[in-house]
Amino acid sequence: MDTIRVLVSGAAGKMGQELVRAIHWEEDLKLVGACDVSQVGVEVGQMCGIDLSGVVMERFLSRTLDESLPQVVCDFTHADALRGNLPVYLEHQVSMVIGTTGLRTEELKDLEKKCLANNIGCLVAPNFAIGAVLMMQFAKTAAKYLERAEIIEFHHPQKKDAPSGTAIKTAEGIMEMNREMNRGVGEDKTVELVPGARGGRIGSVNIHSVRLSGFVAHQEVIFGGEGQTLTIRHDSLSRVSFMPGIIMAIRDLASHKGFYYGLEKILDL
Known about the structure:
Rossmann fold
C-alpha cells in the first residue's frame, strides 16, 4: 500500500487538530508537516493527545513544504490566511484539499483557472460532512417541485464568515434548479422594520445566519408550497463528522488532477 504524505495548514485550530488525529489512524496516510501561527515548535502529536508523530509545528509554509514534500496539503485556516497560502501551494505544485471558507466567486474561478493551467489537483468544499452534501443534493431536488425556499444556518460564534459556505452553495444549487425550470425570481415585498430582518439573499433564497455558543455546524432548508412546508436539516454535532469526507478527498487528490468545487464532485451521487 502506497503511503500518501499529508501536510495540514491550520493544524493548531480545532479542525486542524481533529484532522491530525484522523490522519494518524489511517494506515495509508502519513502526516509529514504542520503549519500554524500558534503552537510553533510544539510536537503535533503531543498537542493532539496521540502517540508522538515526530512532526513539529512550523510557522513558515514555504520552508515546511520544501522540507516535508507532501503530496497533499489540507488548508483549514481562515480566508485571509488562505489568500496568502494559495500562491505558495501553486508555486510548489502540491495538490490541495481546502476546507477554508470565505473566498469570493471570482477568487474561486481564478484558482480553478490556475490549477487547470498548471495541472494541479484541488478540491474546495464548504462542508465535508457526507450528510451535509446529501442535504444540499436533496435541497436541489426539492427545488424542482417547490420553488420558494429559505435557509437558516447555525454556527459557533468563532466562525469568521456569514453566511456559511454551505448555505451559499445550497442557495446556488436551488437557483440553478430554478434556472433549469425557467422560473423567474420572485420579489420579496416585505417591509423590514429592522434592517436585515429578512437576512441576506441569493436570487430568491433568503439566508439567515445564527452565531451562538453550543453550535458546531447546522443548517435548515425550508421550502414552502400550497398548504405545505418541507424542512431538510443537517446537524454536525462534532467535528469528527467532517473527517471521513476529508480523508476521502485526500485519497482522491493524491491520484487525480483537476479542480473540484464541492465534495459531491468525487462522490457517486
